[in-house]
Amino acid sequence: PNISVALFPAGLTALVQTQQTVMAAVGEEAHLNCQLMQKKDVVQVTWWKPEGDKTLATSSKHFGPRVNPDFIDKVEFKDAGLQNNSIVIRNLTEQDEGCYHCLFNSYPEGAFIGVTCLTALVQTQQTVMAAMGEEAHLNCQLMQNKDVVQVTWQKGSPEKEENVATYSEHFGPRVNFGFIDKVGFTKDAGLQNNSIVIRNLAEQDEGCYQCLFNTYPEGRLTELHEPILHVRESNSPEEAVVSCSATGRPAPTVTLRVLQQDFHFSNYSSVNVTNTNGTVAVTTTAVLSGYRGNSTEIVCAARVLSGPQIEVFMMIPEVKQSSADGEKHFQTYTFRD
């Protein structure tokens, strides 16, 4: 499934950045985001699905965020801003698949349009409840036919992700050493539809389990590496140039924000570079204005599809004034989480 590119009416040069691909599990949530990369006087953002000509929601300068009655239980705003806007589609079904348009209606230019297409690719039970001492059956099904070479089960926690078991084309089912007495594959486990059993349930077995379908030639369906924040001085003493890079598969969404109200970002630009291994490096750059020598904290956030977001924080310290030339200077910083 491919998505999206930004589409623009003739004569308009502003850029709308969207995710390149959104894949999510049936029954879970999908996060769709659109960002207007140039500052415009936007009066309303409209989310629209051409299939069936459905207007899902609007966020306007005068009336705020509004979800249309037919979608109140399905759609909500995550960020209802007029420059950066995102919605959440809840409890995904196959009927939610398709392309979604975000329209930034500005005055006097007209509309700037971004397109994102959603694929409900992996179906899970979402939540499994079982009694202590009994068994829990976890299942994942790939909804599109792919050349899967391995299915990997992971258990996630705030501290780390543990590989529980793998089921591969060449080696069959294998349970990792620490889970041999705890986890087993069901008899019907395969590469398109895979199930495990967690035996003799205890409190420490609670948590979120991920199933990863490793495909050829696509590789792992999702991948995200740590973002890198970089700050350098601008031509103006009251500005700084901030860039953040993140590498993932498919292309990650990389956003910048500043926590103090007196500061703001402008002049956004974004560059995508596709690596030989199929991952994409995305670098978002913006100018931080309002910098008058005071400390401020900036945040870079990276996300692939509707997966977990990785954030990197950096405190820009106060500017030091040079006695030699009387000008303000600050160090160039690079921060890696």
Automatic annotation (TrEMBL):
InterPro entries cross-referenced by the UniProt entry: Ig-like_dom, Ig-like_dom_sf, Ig-like_fold, Ig_sub, Ig_sub2, Ig_V-set, OX2G-like
SUPFAM superfamilies named in the record: Immunoglobulin (SSF48726)
GO molecular function, one term: cell-cell adhesion mediator activity
Keyword vocabulary terms for this entry: Disulfide bond, Glycoprotein, Immunoglobulin domain, Membrane, Signal, Transmembrane, Transmembrane helix
One GO location term (cellular component): axon
Taxonomy, superkingdom: Eukaryota
Pfam assignment, any one: V-set
Biological processes per GO annotation: heterotypic cell-cell adhesion; negative regulation of neuroinflammatory response
Annotated Ig-like domain residues: 1-102, 108-222
Membrane topology: Single-pass membrane protein
Main localization, broad class: membrane
Signal sequence coordinates: 1-18
Subcellular location: Membrane
Protein name (Swiss-Prot/TrEMBL): Ig-like domain-containing protein
